[in-house]
Fold this protein.
Amino acid sequence: MMRIAHVLDAEVGWEQRLGMEHLLDRLPGERFAQHLFDVEPGRKSRAAGFNPRGDPRETALYESAEGRRASTIIERIPAIARLAPFTGALLGRRIRSRRIDIVHAWGTYAATAARSVHDRPVVLTLYDPRVAARKVKLLRTLAKSPGFAVSCSTETVRRRLIEGGFPPEQSAVIRPGVDFGLINKIRRGDLRRRLGVGEDEFLCLVPAPVTRESGAFEAVYAVALRRRLCGGHRVIVPGESWESERIVRFQRGLPITSPIVVAPRGVPFEQLLAVADALLITPRGDISTTAIAWAMAAGAGVIGTAVYAVAEIIAHGVNGLLFKQTPGRSMSGAIYRLLEQRDRLGKTREAARGQAYEVFGLRRYAEQMMRLYENVKAGRAAAEGIPDAAMGA
């Protein structure tokens, strides 16, 4: 039996939570024993999907829509001055006592702590190409000794690593898995009604986390303009951040009814994606694109900027609608014009949903992660036997 230690840190958000949950559900229990550790307790938001337990040494995954994982415990490891060697010493004791074979780090600090004190193989999962570019020097150092590999959610993430000098043979592209069963259940449920959205209203969503770089402000402004002129358009601004609060304050100051929908506290972001009619993913540069995978699977239209990360998954007029943003100019006009093309967007939604079944299946995700664990443990190239699912779609 292979023993896996999932190690989380403050970088963990909804994407990492879902990836870990899927492995907890899908890896066969007779072959894998999985343990969960948190090396930066108390720093994750509720929006990421974690819930503090009564015991200060423990954290729990939120209960899923199916009621699974409600009792899954994440053991807390104190972060001593946020120095990886100190944290790694405490983590190392737990890992040795449980005879862990592979450490799966879900953030760069977790990977650093795991590599600092013991020789177990480490797999790091990266979703955001900005993190890959910013942390590549650190990751090059971690990769100097054997038994280290990075699982990249997209080719853009892997490209940013290689551009920074990371060894190509120590990385593999494993597309995120999407829970189609959960999506169908949420769509059949009453979440739209609880959000206060009518069946005939067109519900948009901007990706989490909401930041200045994500272009959410201009996307919301375009929806507000569309609602003012044509009616029937709403938008969800998820999570709690300085930028989301700024957007809400701005909309309150406009002489129109605000189009913003406030999601109930504790509703996971993937459930909001399941009931949206369109995802507005409009960054000016690199961005994590797991939200696109879930939008495609849910049949939500994708409207976005033609940056590398988005264009890797979305082809204009085929499975989404893209526009080229011009530096120094607002994107609101382009977003508004694409929102007008409802029939064209509807056709791309149908194509995207069919592609999502081929590229983002949970079974494929679990099988490729198992293969990566085996490759790292055996000293093989990380991508051996792991084809990019999107290349054949």
User: Anything to note?
Assistant: The chain has two domains: 2-177+361-384, 180-359. DSSP finds 15 helices and 15 strands in the chain. Residues 52-60, 62-71 have pLDDT under 50 and may be disordered.
